[in-house]
Amino acid sequence: MAKSKFKLNYAGVGQLLKSAEMQNVLEEKATAIKNRCGDGYGQDVYVGKSRANAMVFADSSAAKRDNMKNNTILKAVR
């Protein structure tokens, strides 16, 4: 049995990581995490140099205190 070589298409992977579909997946994941955190948290999805990124952040001062005291965002990711 002959072994076949697998060659990764790096340009295609790069396009996939920046695609609108990937941004939609990240948006869904970030929304779920933000909803587990509660009130005062925000989210953002943006395209960086090599891939799409999502972030959840404490948007209000009460949420910032809550996150500093309880690691709310980190716990919501799990």
Can you offer a commentary on this structure?
The chain has 78 residues and is α+β, with helices and mostly antiparallel strands. Helices cover 55% and strands 18% of the residues. It has 4 helices and 2 strands. The protein has helices at 10-18, 20-37, 61-70, 72-77; strands at 41-47, 52-58. It has a two-stranded antiparallel ribbon with strand order 1-2. Strand 1 and strand 2 form a beta hairpin. The longest helix has 18 residues, at 20-37. The mean pLDDT is 95.
Describe the oligomeric state of these chains in a short phrase: single chain
What's the order of the H and E elements?
A: HHEEHH
Number of helices: 4
Query: What value does the average pLDDT take?
Result: 95
What is the distance, rounded to the nearest whole angstrom, between the alpha carbons of the first and last residues? 43 Å
Principal-axes shape call: elongated
Main β-sheet description: 2 strands, antiparallel
Strand order in space, largest sheet: 1-2
Unreliable stretches, pLDDT < 50, 5 or more residues? none
Structural class: alpha+beta
Q: Give the number of DSSP strands.
A: 2
Q: What portion of residues belong to β-strands?
A: 15-25%
- The value of Rg in angstroms is 18 Å
Helix content: 55-70%
